[in-house]
Amino acid sequence: MKIAFFDTKPYDKQTFEKYVKDYGFDIKYFETKLNEDTADLANGFDAVCAFVNDTVNDKVIDKFYGMGIRVLALRCAGFNQVDMKHAYGKLHVLRVPAYSPYAVAEHAIALLLTSVRRIHKAYIRSKDFNFSLSGLTGFDLYGKTVGVIGTGKIGRVFMDICRGFGMKILAYDKFPDHMLEKDGSVRYVSMEDLLQNSDILSLHCPLTEETYHLIDEDALNLCKKGVILLNTSRGALVDAEALLNAIKSRKVGAACLDVYEEESEWFFEDNSGHIMEDDTLARLISMPNVIVTSHQAFLTEEALENIAQTTLENLRGFFETDQCENELCYTGGGTRECKNGKCF
Ligand code: NAD
Fold first, then answer.
1. CB of residue 173 inside a 6 A radius of ligand 1
2. What's the 206 CA to ligand 1 centre distance in angstroms?
3. What residues does each domain of the chain span?
4. Which residues 6+ apart lie within 8 Å of 282 measured at CB?
5. pLDDT digit string, tens, across residues 270-319
6. Under 8 Å CB-to-CB from 69, ≥6 apart: which residues?
């Protein structure tokens, strides 16, 4: 089986090469991202492997269909980059539903601690033998209230860590799991309640039509003054312009962003020699109380290993049996995991 692998980075190739021999697949690694202009590279392949900032829109899907490609293996959990409605009946979409919730939750905490204790400032100062503490005053996380939006795999690990810090936890989820409230350490509340009462907000829900710009001007207006926003989920959950305005007006005390709405233009690449044309991103990065990482939260050795193994296992399942445990299907009402094998 020949697999066209898009948006390849050295760490992807290194991990997939470790396992691919066991599966007998032939992978061709393309560095370019997948989009309408590059989809033709997949001609002659049996499957395509794509990542978070690839574009699998109606045109790409139709091209694949015309080439006889029937399977797309996403090496990530999120699938907002795929037009799932258009894919139904044409392209089977497989994903890696969980590879390390710890990787993402721990990165969110790393960003939070960096921000709250001004580690990003202290690191640069001490490199220059500037050992002054002025301006580095932080605050204790103990006793603070964190509002967690999305209490799935990552949200739960994040809450576990927050519990360890002695934080109070408010939660919001479209499908709450009230078992989480049993020991009294977590309380599900309305979105409004969560926004009004949280010192820190952390986003762990997927990007859907419903959650697009979940954190917009109105939501930010409801927040406590000085709230800290953590987004390690998907950029478009936050209206970046509204966030910038809220930082300028001092409503938002700090923002830690591993994802950004327009990240596909910039993230994962070295743009250090280029003029940054995205004024909103440039302005956000220029703020002393904003920390941006480049969609890095997933990047641990454990996660990469799990991603490679599950992606290859998904493809083997697809080609050798009719059981594709990690297939996603558009059902009319939305996209669901289709546990019963290939559904068309
Ligand atoms: P999950 O499916 O286990 O949990 C998502 C939770 O969000 C579920 O409990 C679901 O009920 C809830 N939800 C769905 N719609 C909602 C809505 N409208 N409002 C509130 N909650 C809603 O997913 P997960 O593994 O915890 O991952 C969460 C997100 O993290 C993914 O969707 C992905 O976007 C992001 N992610 C980011 C990285 C990274 O490197 N930064 C890596 C992996 C995942």
1. yes
2. 4
3. 2-99+301-338, 101-292
4. 276
5. 999 999 999 999 999 999 999 999 999 999 999 999 999 999 999 999 99
6. 42, 45, 46, 47, 48, 91
